[in-house]
Amino acid sequence: MRSLGVDPRNKTELNDKKEMAELAENLKQAMLQDYRLAYCGLGQKYEEESKSTLNR
After folding, report:
1. Is the separation of the CB atoms in 8 and 20 below 8 Å?
2. What are the tens digits of pLDDT across the range 12-24?
3. Could you give the number of structural domains in the chain?
């Protein structure tokens, strides 16, 4: 987890299944976005889109 920039929590803090599902979904979306930027010819389009959503 630390290699992904996420500090591991104590086991008692990870018992919430909804929170775990949301964390997993966030990680999947971040990895998908990184994949698109790295391997798709549309990388620049996705980069511009991500910058525009972050600046709102």
Report:
1. no
2. 665 678 888 888 9
3. 1
